Amino acid sequence: MSTNLLLEIYQTNSTQKLEELRKKLPIDVSVDEIKQIKLLCKQANPLWIFTGVPTHFQQELLHIIGPKRSATLLDMIFSGK
């Protein structure tokens, strides 16, 4: 699993394609949750690799998918897997 998958999700406008991509994630998420995460990703900054993910972003992600899935998704992003 790589962060390329998240980039592909971010760039996709097709609900059908989002459905296919969400099945490749290491967490169980709905298409609606993916759409919310996609909107949230507009705030993302590559510098977060060095500075860490800001608290407000983490809190919004927690609100969307909960603590366990948020932790798994963030681990995936920063491990590059």
Please describe what this structure looks like.
The chain has 81 residues and is an all-alpha fold. It has one domain. It has helices at 3-11, 15-22, 31-40, 48-51, 55-65, 67-79. α3 (31-40) runs antiparallel to α5 and α5 (55-65) packs across α6 (67-79). The relative contact order is 0.17.
Which characteristics define this entry?
81 residues; 6 helices; mainly alpha
Silhouette: globular
Strand content: under 5%
Could you state the oligomeric state of the chains shown?
Answer: single chain
On the 0-100 scale, what is the average pLDDT?
85
Helix content estimate: 55-70%
For the largest beta-sheet, the strand count, sense and barrel status come to: none
Distance between the termini: 4 Å
| Overall SS class | mainly alpha
Report Rg. 12 Å
Number of domains: 1
Low-confidence blocks of residues: none
Order of helix and strand elements from N to C terminus = HHHHHH
Number of helices: 6
Helices and strands in order:
Elements: H1 3-11, H2 15-22, H3 31-40, H4 48-51, H5 55-65, H6 67-79
Report a brief summary of the structure.
With 81 residues, the chain is mainly α.
